[in-house]
């Protein structure tokens, strides 16, 4: 099956476990997910099957949204409440105004240092593997962007926010940084991912729903790139482009496009430079029409 599944990942299950489950349900080896979600977290996990896996990078690039709770006064080795507490501090009194002022400081483009407990690889080893061995290595801060940081609720020692962010953003680290800005320390105590690109939690399917009726839960591969402009070509152009031949299409602006065949078939993704199209990701090779 060539499709995308907007999975509602349950807590206490790794993203890898989800892939293993769906590999058996769909009876396919060609399957992958669009962005790891921590085992304790729940929410949207887009899973791509069949030829749709060629579009995985577009899901990873997409905007992400979360609802996260941070508990103040203690910091753990993992950045969430699954880890050992390594630091405690008193929590100063604060109100809504102070909290929102701190949130405003962390909105926009910034650099974020990835945590040791992450899947980032250094010299071929994942950081969390090194962390479990008690090894800490130097990491380089990475550019991220927080599009929105909205306060939903707060108590004397915790607060809940809605976060809209770019790829590569670690919500655990954001929570620690927010706690530091409030004059204390903290850890993430709840995480729900509500959106990845075009896939939102209100349209997500549970694993049981997918197992019972995969077709009803399957989304067309085109949904992964719905925001890209569409370019429809004729049969000869479709055949040339999908077979790797750079092809001129007059009056086409530079940029990336969804390539549609003459019957509106989704053929892949192309890039245009100076009216010449080059294939980036091809899902279907179009046959050369007979003379």
UniProtKB/TrEMBL annotation:
What Gene Ontology molecular-function terms does this entry list? RNA binding; tRNA pseudouridine(55) synthase activity
Q: Which Pfam families match?
A: TruB_C_2 (PF16198), TruB_N (PF01509)
Q: Which UniProt keywords apply?
A: Isomerase, tRNA processing
| Active site residues according to the UniProt entry | 38 (nucleophile)
Tell me what organism the protein belongs to: Phascolarctobacterium succinatutens YIT 12067
Enzyme Commission number, as recorded: 5.4.99.25
The UniProt entry, under NCBIfam families, shows: TruB
Protein name per Swiss-Prot or TrEMBL: tRNA pseudouridine synthase B
Q: What class of enzyme is it?
A: isomerase
